[in-house]
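Inputs:
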Amino acid sequence: MSLTQPVASDHQLARLLQIGMVLEEVVEARAHKHHEAIGEEALDDGVLALLEEAAEESGEHRRRLESLVSELDADPVAYEEIETLVAAQYESDTDFDGVLYDQLCNEETAYKFYDDLIAAIEGSDVEFTIGRERLLETLKAIRRDEREGVEDVTALMERRE
Amino acid sequence: MNTQAQYLKTIYLVQDETDGPASTGDIADNLGVSPASANEMIGKLESRGLAEHEKYKGVSLTDEGIGRARDALQTYCIIERFLLEVLEVEEFQAEARQLESVIDETVAERLDTIIDRAECCPDCFDAETDACELLEVDVPTEPAD
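Outputs:
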């Protein structure tokens, strides 16, 4: 008795991948904003490295998702557009704990999103334009990165306690 | 949004529309499920203290149920507004209905950081247009294929 809908078409799949792109772009843009707001000198090495890695990893995920979206004949979501939206609503987390907590939310949210998306694709018997095996492999690899991201932020938070 | 949240949101909206308890038939129709499925979930909501079911009258949410229903409606509003404002989807109501089961509230919270949502949300939701009344839309669209 579930209302969970399996992914029913290329169009829906493309839309969900676009949402994944936006989530990655939000992570990337917020990491840059945190960096800017706190200043390089004030950041300790661990937090600085974490922000740089998060932005780099999200950029890589975004490019992989963009490639899938293009194959589905849909438009990718421009990073610059999301960067502008993030900047418009951004409220500075001026302490380390705020930044770390935000990064933890980013990683956990992304993990949950890919986990649900993978389940919805696996629950669908639709034949997508993209090969199912390659699609799931890509998404599972990204999900694995997000899980490791959660572990990294948690470990850093524990070290700081 | 999980199945329970979708039920709570629907009961809340049906109650709001009829200004009384929601009938099982209306709940089932709105969710596109059988009355038997709706009854099963209503029983679960009752056992969790989220709803009360009175025979021949219908279902009413408890205070806790109302709180959770409003959270679910807010998540739905975020999805709709995100689709319209960021991805510029014209048929955003139809697509939101298709996507709501895959978009978790934590994901919606992140999407909320880049949209412009009024503080009165979800009170500005209009069940008739299936959208926020501040968005100036006409009639709900049918689900796309």
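Remarks. The radius of gyration of chain A is 17 Å. Chain A has one domain: 10-160.
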